[in-house]
Amino acid sequence: MKRSSSAAALLLFGALALTGCASWYVHPLPTEAHEFRARTRDGWELAMVQYVPKGVPTGRPVLLCHGISANGRHMDLDEAHSLARFFAEHGREAWTMSLRGTGQSDRIDPAKHRPGGYSFDTLWNEDTRAAIEFVRTHAQTPKLIADARHDGETLTAEQLEIEHEPMPTIDYVGHSMGGMLVYAYLSQGGPGLHAVVTMGSPTRLDWGGIAEPLLVGPSEQFLSKDGAIPMEGLALFSMIWQGRTSGDPLERLLMNPDNIKPATWQRMVAIGTGDISNSVWLQLERMTTSGRFESFDGKINYREDMSRIHVPVLVVAGKLDRIAVAPAVKDGYRALGGPKEWFLAAEESGFHADYGHMDMVVGERASKELWPKLIDFLDRQRAQ
Amino acid sequence: MRSLLAVAVLIVSVVSSVASAKAPVSIENGGVFRRKIVTSDGVPLALYRYVPPGGGRELAPVLLIPDLGMGREVFDLDGSGLAPYLEAKGRDVFVLEPRGTGSSGVPVNWSIKDIIARDLPAAVKAIRADREGPIELVVHGYLGALVMVSTTDELQAQIGKIAALATPTDAEVPNALAEALLRSGGRLSGLNVDQESAAIFETLFAKHGRFAPGHLAALRSRAFSDLGPVASGELLRWMRNGDFTFADGTTFRARLAKYDRPTLQLIPLRDNWVHPEHASRLRELAPNAKVSVRLLSMLDYIAEDYTHLSVLQGAGASRDIYPLLSDFFDRPGVPPSNTVASGEVR
């Protein structure tokens, strides 16, 4: 009895410590951010956050999607590290989303008809689809442009086109798996996108690395399809050493310390981490051995079908990205069938340092070095 | 008395020098030898040979070919490098300095096409004069990629396995620095004249690489030769067009489709001269070859992410890189030459 009380006390202390630990790093959303809930066709609610630009929108709304083991806060970590606020400051209505099972989105709960076992295929076919449709129907951009026209402002052809589209097409920026999701979505005919940027999004993962099985395993025999890997809890437990050791495995995998300060890294790990559905993990694990980018059942070859994508895409790779290595990202670029551009975030391109995987979304200089290239690309896809 | 002593010393030294000159050079005793070979168009080339004690005749010889504009030093810098490593592993090792580099001749307006059409056959012929059977290759960079596909034509049926380091399959202009360098005639030796050019050198070939003290400076000052206007123009055209046309009119891409050599391809992640994404499609573009690809990244707990030069001369190369090549060549079960059907290779 005494022993079980001690264990319970220890667990309670641990839970309190973790809660406190996480809240220590949380920066509240800015006042201009508005929270919404989008609903997927299979009944899950996704957390969406809208960032309305000051003044008249200069272009289409932009949906920002995070990668694996992350959540919507990756795109708005704090005032100094926020791709969402960057777009809003540059005239674009930005939206962040949290994929199911992460951030403030619905979690696995079989009692509420939200079973585990969802794969990458479910994410693009349900979550990506629902989020795009939600932004198209809830964006303020057409109304803000209409208001400006009523006020007598001179508008561009692009702005007029957006105003008069019944449901405007939007732009999309996906990081890591967030880019893979849009590749899959578009390859299967998904509608509603005008132009796309992917950053660090691989389409093959078989590069002979001895660490690959360790990265993407544990293997199928250890994971039930229905569960999820509790990355959020693991991230909080790891906070004691995050950003304090040099060259640890997570650092090697995810970032270049020349681009991300330890405090930024700690915040990202503490509040930007999301659990991973076992089936998503297993699907990606197979990519390390098969070299294929395909559906869980192997029936859809996404990579092959990417030749059907005719939406303009800017593909960004980080020179020092050791998880989505430049060849893996370039593989996706080559597969695209429509207008496309390639950019390597690297010292040789004039950047301060070679970019790692996370540097593209939370790097200290990303807003000066990289993100202007994203908005420039999206702006260049305007109506002629 | 003093004169007599001087005459005696002279006689002794003359006799001893004649004796040493007449003594046969024994390759079986090992050592490094340099031999001049002459190509079909009369260009003298330096072919170095590293013979292990015992002669290394029980194993296939290995020919090492550096990238364009680079000399023997990338494989042997004052006794340190892949050539002496493989020699120590019992291999009979040859290093070719193609025209325009190192101690080889520098014809006016020399062409990359002539390296493939004339230098390679001359080197292989010289090796085969003493060694039978297939020759294994270690090739590097842009020239390495061209050498690989020469096994479908100029070197057909002569080559066993190939270890390819930073060899592009989809050559592109890697960055503005490289383009400017090639547009101005590929003056690689000029990257040693001042701090600014040394910084360009480092960015292109070595940045973030880890080198033993003095090694990088030694490589910069000794290993590089100018490409000249023709070769630099050919290389830049290849980067811009994505394909290279050989002297016989065939193209790199067409040859790659026929390429069938068992290949270990190592791709350094931080190579700014041959980007990893420009080297990554060998498996797809050469479907008849059995290719093992290894992308070199610190994720695998190796010393560094590796650059164009450090993959051969980095401080960690003897631990991380050379054993991969040696093991690859030692691995049994690979057919001896490309005279066998591709189906058997696979």
| Number of strand segments of chain A | 10
What is the averaged pLDDT score of chain A? Answer: 89
Roughly what fraction of the amino acids of chain A lie in strands?
5-15%
Strand count, sense and barrel status of the largest sheet of chain B are: 8 strands, mixed
Low-confidence stretches of chain A: none
List keywords for this structure.
heterodimer; A: 384 residues; alpha/beta; 10 strands; globular; B: alpha/beta; 14 helices; 8 strands; 37% helix; 14% strand; disordered N terminus
Model description:
The complex is a heterodimer of chains A (384) and B (346). Chain A starts with a helix and ends with a helix. With 384 residues, chain A is an alpha/beta fold. In chain A, helix 3 packs across helix 6 and helix 4 packs across helix 5. The model of chain A has no long low-confidence stretch (mean pLDDT 89). By secondary structure, chain B is α/β, with parallel strands linked by helices. Chain B has 14 helices and eight strands. Chain B has an eight-stranded mixed sheet, sandwiched between helices. In chain B, strand 1 and strand 2 form a beta hairpin. The N terminus and C terminus of chain B are likely disordered. Chains A and B meet through helix 13 of A and strand 8 of B.
